[in-house]
Amino acid sequence: MSATAVHSLWTTTAAEGIDKIQAPKIEYAQLAPVLIVLGAAVVGILLEAFVPRKGRYYAQLFLSVVALAAAFAAVVALAANGYGSTKAHLAAMGAIAVDGPALFLQGVIILTAIVAVFTFAERRLDPVSHGNRIDSFAAQGASVPGSESEKAAVKAGFTTTEVFPIALFAVAGMLVFPAANDLLTLFIALEVFSLPLYLLCALARRKRLMSQEAAVKYFLLGAFSSAFLLFGIALLYGYAGSVTYARIAAVVDGSVATVDPVLADTMGNDALLLIGGAMILMGLLFKVGAVPFHMWTPDVYQGAPTPVTGFMAAATKVAAFGALLRLLYVVLPGLRWDYRPVMFGVAIATMVFGAIVAITQTDIKRLLAYSSIAHAGFILAGVIAMTDEGISSVLFYLAAYSFVTVGAFAVVTLVRDAGGEATHLSKWAGLGRRSPLVAAVFAVFLLAFAGIPLTSGFSGKFAVFKAAADGGAGSLVVVGVISSAIAAFFYVRVIVLMFFSEPKADGPTVAVPSPLTMTTIGVGVVVTLVLGLAPQYFLDLASQAGVFVR
Amino acid sequence: MSFPLLTATAAVPAIGAIVTAAVPAARRTGAKWIALAFSLATLVLAAIALVRFEPGGDRYQLTESHAWISDFGVRYELGVDGIGVALMALTALLIPFIILAGWHDADPLETKSSRWRPTQGFFALILMVEAMVILSFEATDVFLFYILFEAMLIPVYFLIGGFGDRAHAGGDEAGATQRSYAAVKFLLYNLAGGLIMLAAVIGLFVQAGTFSLAEIAEARANGTLDMSTGMERWLFLGFFFAFAVKAPLWPVHTWLPNAMGEATAPVAVLITAVVDKVGTFAMLRFCLQLFPEASKWATPVVLVLALISIVYGALLAVGQRDIKRLIAYASISHFGFIIMGIFAMTSQGQSGATLYMINHGISTAALLLVAGFLISRRGSRLISDYGGVQKVAPVLAGTFLIGGLATLSLPGLAPFVSEFLVLVGTFSVYPVIGIIATVGIVLAALYVLVLYQRTMTGPVNESVRSMPDLKLRELAVVTPLIALLLFLGVYPKPLTDIVNPAVEHTMSDVQKTDPKPEVEAAP
Question: Where is the NADH:quinone oxidoreductase/Mrp antiporter transmembrane domain (chain B) (predicted)?
């Protein structure tokens, strides 16, 4: 190669490049939900820099709620225009799918995020300190726990209002995650929503060391699983010569005969496909909290500030199951017979393990964490069905579950003693005598978790089990009902504690929340009952949405 | 569109529950009257349904059908056959007595915080149970029935755990512990049974593609529903297990003595006379109708289990020291008779079983409610704490005796008719089992009469010397029940007229006919 050739790179090929590289065509309107949330997150960061400290809380809360509401409106508008069904297609050069499942899950994530943001913004639970109302987050994340600087920050009334833009970033990532239609977008979305969550976990105002430990654990294990996912992506690229879902699916089907000359050695090598596919599944199962990738769940749920736990438990699960569904139904349907036995094992282990270990828990947040593991197992039973009904039942379950979860964790924030939230179960004894309403509401959530009829939990459970039975996974249904029976034990135990035990003299008090948390809890109860009594409309919605675009 | 009578019979108590629960804390007595009024209104509606029901007419009458959750293939379908309407009427009949008998059971011991409203909760829960039980007798959609079957556990659970018997030997603390143990045991047993049934419900849907009893029967008749023998048996077992827990049948009966012992007497009546009937009713309606072949296949085992229940329950009743637990074990023995009658698969056996459900409801209510009055006077459930009560409270002792005699199926009282029918029905096809089952009758005489002798006769125990006799409210509870026992004992025809056609339908479902009598009737 001569020097002129190098020169020509700089000079002449520029003209050629204009023909070759075309500007990507981005359908901004169809990506509006994501773009609105991301834009609001960026504006939120700017607010943090330029708005005086006093006004930040209100500005951030207003911005977040308006942005999320606008994003939801955008989702509804897209769905109303038929993008959920007839006009479903791939936007942004095939990187992001705009189809029924994506829009449904984005809607669920946004609504969950709105009610979760309300709990983030709650400032009436703790007593006023140094003349300032305080929320669940550390006064200053950067100050060392117990140090002078922390005390100074508390005294000065600092609040970490950056949680709002951070949460918005996480929401944006979650919106992309179930819609991602190539593996790189999937990975980027994963990181975009994971990194803010790691941060949020570390920001508890009380028990800061525990909170930071939770964040470090979550970060390390999360990074580990990301590495698996990335490695899996590389292997699948080696197998298919592409990272787009449609192309990989085509290669798996054998409908693509052409071999990329650069990848001649690896393309079509089934070992790469199987190992790569397994690694990507691992990455997703980690986010879902399925056994044996569940280890982070209890510690992180316990350590994180409770509003964050509620948000994370609900929204992460929705996003991750969305991505899992798309991967299994769009990319790997040709591999069904290879991964189905493994997924069977994972689902069974998840249901049984979650239910059994939850029995021994003494901390309400850890208990809910293990219960979320068991629920991940139930949802996996629907995922494995591999039918249209499987998709719609999982969508419905996720919608039902997320509102119960956010509501339940919101109730947990209310029960407090001198040390903050009283999460030890023994302190909940006799709560039903002291605050019948709060206890009754929590009992409704527990009954929904347990899947008692007339609650949303039952409708969801019935939908996934029916789909699983239809899809030939009857054994999963049997294991599912048995672990439901086991799980019922610990939900009932909490109800017994609340209603049938005598209140302790030094027991916790129930804080009277602001309308924000009340809204969160109220929405949770209403959704739980409506989806339990009259789920038809939402089942229709889910089944209309249950078709992936390829 | 005609007036939805069946929906109304369930909606009225449900609305009553909400209204009662909403009564302010200070207006306790008002809440009681409201609950009583709603339960009486339900009784009126049930009576209208009973009158409008034509025994010779269609199998399911007063039907209603509305779309509900079409994605699950679920419809809100109601309809009653003779068995359903009779049990619905029994439920509606007993609830006012239960409310009246429990008038003071949930009065708060001291005025605690104003937001704790146990009285309102107690009566609201009772009405809630009534609504669910009535609707479950009317549901002709398997899914709708399942939902109610499961959901009714929750209010019963709170009734057991939240409003226990105050007459507890170990004091309040031990009482609370045992109470919550009993409540949890009740819930877990029944929930486990229910969840197993859920798997079978889903399996049934996968097989049949519908939850409607009528559609499944039609598909079975024209051969489009082709269930393999093995699948039918598994599904039968799933359903039967849940109903056996609820009924309760040995060996899944152990929750009942705890629950009945710890609950207040009216709640114990609610459990054994009303809620448990859903289990035996469902065996007739769902097990036999949906899975006739499997039911016949399982008959020998079920009959043996029923027989064990009869003898074992009666034996344990003889050995009890606690009045309420004694009645609980007696009930287990009686449920054995009911299940035996159902699975003997003769028309006498099944009519007997249906009558037995109703008569057992009335007789147990009479006995247990009087026992409750007795216990609340002395503050103890132990038999040994009583003696000579008939000298100080003759009316109480007399009504207790009649309730007891009904329990041991004395001829002339209603339970005799049904027990006789069950035994005849069983004997005609399974003579050995029929013969052994009569042991249960002998033992019943033993436990009832010994109970009466120890508590009511003999020297007057010091602690009962100042025991008052039955008050007007208590008499208002007991008298009508006893009158009904006598009436149905002498003239059971109205009841059998309603029940018999339904039994014929069930018999034709399982394609069984009664054995021919060995001795031809004289020409």
Answer: 139-443
Q: How far apart are CA A340 and CA A337, in angstroms?
A: 5
Distance CA B468, CA B455 (A): 15
pLDDT one digit per residue (tens) for chain B, 523 residues: 577 888 888 888 888 888 888 877 777 788 888 888 989 898 898 888 888 888 777 778 877 888 787 777 788 888 888 888 888 888 998 999 888 888 877 776 655 544 556 788 888 889 999 999 998 998 888 888 988 888 888 888 888 877 766 655 455 666 777 788 888 888 888 888 888 888 888 888 878 878 888 788 788 777 777 778 888 888 888 899 999 998 888 888 888 888 888 888 888 888 888 888 898 898 888 888 888 888 888 888 999 999 999 999 898 888 888 888 888 899 899 999 999 988 888 888 888 888 888 889 899 888 888 888 888 877 778 887 887 788 888 888 888 888 888 888 888 888 888 888 888 888 888 888 888 888 888 888 888 888 888 888 878 877 777 778 778 888 888 889 889 888 888 888 888 888 888 888 877 777 777 776 666 555 4
B405 Cα to chain A: minimum distance (Å): 37
Please name the residue of chain A whose CA is at the shortest distance from the CA of residue B145. Answer: A453
Domain membership flag for residue A3: no
- Phi and psi torsions of A332, nearest 5°: -110, 20
Residue A259 lies in a domain: yes
In chain A, positions 485-524, which contact chain B (CB-CB < 8 Å)? 485, 488-489, 492-493, 496, 499-502
Please say whether the beta carbons of A292 and A286 come within 8 A: no
Host domain of residue A104: 26-544
HEC sequence for A435-469: CHHHHHHHHHHHHHHHCCCCCHHHHHHHHHHHHHH
Q: Judge whether A367 lies within some domain.
A: yes
Number of domains in chain A: 1
Q: What is the ipTM of this complex?
A: 0.80
- CA-to-CA distance for A72 and A55, rounded, in angstroms? 26
Q: Which two tokens stand for residue B380?
A: 């103890």
Does any domain span residue A344?
A: yes
- State whether residue A463 sits within 8 Å of chain B by CB: yes
DSSP A223-251: HHHHHHHHHHHHHHHHHHS--BHHHHHHH
Q: In the block, which residue shows the tokens 């028990």? A: A207
CA–centroid distance for A95 within its chain: 21
Q: What residues does A204 pair with on adjacent strands?
A: A137
* A76 within 8 A of A153, measured Cβ to Cβ: no
Q: Give the separation between CA A495 and CA A489, rounded to whole angstroms.
A: 10
Helices (H), B152-228: 153-162, 171-208, 213-221
For residue A178, give the nearest of A451, A351, A383 by alpha carbon: A383
What whole-number distance in Å separates Cα of residue B211 and Cα of residue B515?
Answer: 33
B74: enclosing H helix or E strand? strand B74-80
When scoring A388, A478, A479, A498 by the number of chain B Cβ atoms within 10 A, the one with the most, hence best to mutate, is: A478
- Please give the radius of gyration of chain B, using alpha carbons only, rounded to the nearest integer: 22
B428: DSSP letter: T
d(CA B399, CA A122): 61
Choose from B115, B119, B198 for mutation: most chain A CBs within 10 A.
B198
Q: Tell me which chain B residues have a C-beta less than 8 angstroms from the C-beta of A539.
A: 69, 71-72
Residues of B with CB under 8 A from a CB of A: 67-72, 112-113, 115-117, 146-148, 150-151, 153-154, 157-158, 161-162, 173, 176, 179-180, 183-184, 187-188, 191-192, 195-196, 198-199, 202-203, 205-206
CB contact at 8 A, A465 and B202: yes
Residues of A in contact with B75 (CB under 8 A): none
Contact A453 B150 (CB under 8 A): yes
